[in-house]
């Protein structure tokens, strides 16, 4: 479905390489999480799928087609994108934000209105209460739900999500990540999601790709990573949610670990 074949990237002719011969295959209907420390190349990798960023070498294929040969506008119409940070247009209402792509695609006002209702219900926002609000009149979690609805508006088969829940409190974050996993399954989406939270990665992902310094260190299911971490870095990353779970269990039992 999505394939990176020996992809390298440098920004500008004399910039340092930020991705080194990266290869990765993401299957149809898979939820793949990219995880790694700040600056390791997660956003750059994600952005290559819809040509917001171009490879300096190697090939990215979507549905078998080299994205370099695809028209970027057509490509992006089939790919939903939820940005790092919020990214809603502040001067547009919730409904207008969601309808941006359908409007560009020439849907009628009735079709757009119907789709807005459907999407608000899918992301569990009350349409009557929220439809005509501006982003500033919503909580962070509600804004992120609108961002998700907007990305889904034109019925994409692929969703790219860059730290979609990063700025949210833990409860809202858990709710949204559960809701998203259900939406992913229900709509048969293929999702690539960036996070730096290993617990979130383990709870959501079919497979996790651990990145470091522009390379993929390990790709596998959560249990693959737990059973056989590729190196000390992966081991340490896995240990962190475990350590927290142990501390929590001890705190709940009224003892110290
Ligand atoms: N437009 C750009 N021009 C030049 N360098 C860039 C550009 N975008 C990213 N970089 C550099 O490429 C590297 C990878 O950046 P990228 O945004 O992919 O990292 P990331 O893993 O998403 O980090 P974070 O977790 O902080 O979002 C960084 O060193 C960054 O400074
Ligand atoms: Mg990033």
Individual helix count? 11
Which class of secondary structure composition applies to the elements? Answer: alpha/beta
Ions, cofactors and other ligands present here are: adenosine-5'-triphosphate, magnesium ion
Helix fraction, binned, reads 40-55%
Uncertain runs with pLDDT below 50, 5 residues or more? none
Strand order of the largest sheet: 6-7-8-3-9-10
Which range does the strand content fall in?
Answer: 15-25%
Number of strands: 10
Termini separation: 45 Å
Q: Tell me the radius of gyration.
A: 19 Å
Overall 3D shape: globular
Order of helices and strands: EEEHEEHEHHHHHEHEHEEHH
What would the average pLDDT be, to the nearest integer?
92
Report the sheet with the most strands, covering strand number, pairing sense and barrel closure: 6 strands, mixed
Quick recap of the structure?
With 257 residues, the chain is of the alpha/beta class. It has helices spanning 42-49, 72-77, 94-98, 100-104, 109-122, 127-130, 140-152, 170-187, 198-204, 222-227, 232-252, and strands at residues 2-10, 17-26, 31-35, 57-62, 65-66, 79-82, 158-162, 190-195, 207-212, 215-220. It has a domain at 86-155.
Tell me the layout of helices and strands:
Layout: E1 2-10, E2 17-26, E3 31-35, H1 42-49, E4 57-62, E5 65-66, H2 72-77, E6 79-82, H3 94-98, H4 100-104, H5 109-122, H6 127-130, H7 140-152, E7 158-162, H8 170-187, E8 190-195, H9 198-204, E9 207-212, E10 215-220, H10 222-227, H11 232-252
Parallel strand pairs: 3-8, 3-9, 6-7, 7-8
Antiparallel strand pairs: 1-2, 1-4, 4-5, 9-10
The chain binds adenosine-5'-triphosphate and magnesium ion (MG).
């Amino acid at each position: 479905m999505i394939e990176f074949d020996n992809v390298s990237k440098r920004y500008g002719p004399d910039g340092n390489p930020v991705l080194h011969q990266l290869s990765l295959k993401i299957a149809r209907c898979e939820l793949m999480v990219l995880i790694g420390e700040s600056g390791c190349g997660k956003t750059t990798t994600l952005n290559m799928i819809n040509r917001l960023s171009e490879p300096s070498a190697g090939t990215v294929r979507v549905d078998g087609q080299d994205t370099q040969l695809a028209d970027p506008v057509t490509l992006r119409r089939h790919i939903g994108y939820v940005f790092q940070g919020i990214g809603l247009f502040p001067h547009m209402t919730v409904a207008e934000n969601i309808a941006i792509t359908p409007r560009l695609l020439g849907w009628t006002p009735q079709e757009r209105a119907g789709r807005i209702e459907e999407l608000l219900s899918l992301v569990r926002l009350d349409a009557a209460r929220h439809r005509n609000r501006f982003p500033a009149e919503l909580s962070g979690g509600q804004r992120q739900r609108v961002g998700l609805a907007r990305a889904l508006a034109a019925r994409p088969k692929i969703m790219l999500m860059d730290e979609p829940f990063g700025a949210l409190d833990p409860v809202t974050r858990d709710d949204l990540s559960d809701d998203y996993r259900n939406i992913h399954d229900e709509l048969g989406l293929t999702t690539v999601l960036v996070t730096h939270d290993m617990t979130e990665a383990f709870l959501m992902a079919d497979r996790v790709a651990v990145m470091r310094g522009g390379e993929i260190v390990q790709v596998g299911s959560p249990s693959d990573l737990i059973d056989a971490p590729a190196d000390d870095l992966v081991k340490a990353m896995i240990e962190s949610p475990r350590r927290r779970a142990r501390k929590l269990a001890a705190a709940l039992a009224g003892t110290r670990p």
